[in-house]
Design a protein that fits this description.
Layout (H helix, E strand, L loop, with lengths): L1 E2 L5 E2 L4 E6 L15 E7 L7 H9 L10 E6 L5 H20 L12 H19 L7
Antiparallel strand pairs: 1-2, 3-4, 4-5
Helix pairs in contact: 1-2
Length: 137
């Protein structure tokens, strides 16, 4: 059971966790121990509220497939338990980030003083560069 918020809870049957062998270096142990985790979560079949489902499907995240399945691979830690916790924490963070409201951007303009400072610094820099030229004899 994974608690996303006070009123959103995911049951164990909704999250499919599969053990796999980790990639990369790790010596002889990496070849015989399946300590990495593939977590799969089907957005459409889940019990998430429709608001969460819509937001998750709108995300352009590479972890979300075209079919609406979230796939998270966790292999940061050496033990299976820590990798499971890491994968579940990343799933929870992804769902929470989809629910967060984006702050509306208000376009602003630079002040007159800021424009003047920018132009002054450009002319100063230009004069400095002009002095670097060849000396006429």
């Amino acid at each position: 059971m994974l608690r996303i918020s006070n009123n959103v809870i995911l049951a164990d049957w909704e999250i499919h966790i599969e053990q796999i062998r980790a990639q990369g270096s790790g010596g002889q142990n990496v070849n015989k121990v399946a300590s990495a985790v593939h977590l799969r979560f089907d957005i459409q079949r889940s019990t998430l509220p429709p608001f969460y489902k819509e937001r998750l499907l709108e995300l352009s995240d590479q972890r979300i497939t075209r079919d609406g399945v979230i796939v998270i691979k966790a292999q940061k830690h050496r033990t299976l338990e820590l990798n499971k916790e890491d994968a579940l924490a990343r799933l929870k963070a992804l769902i929470k980030s989809a629910a967060a409201e984006q702050k509306a951007r208000r376009p602003t303009r630079p002040s007159r003083n800021a424009k003047r400072k920018r132009v002054d610094s450009k002319t100063r820099k230009g004069k400095t560069k002009a002095l670097r030229g060849k000396v006429k004899l």
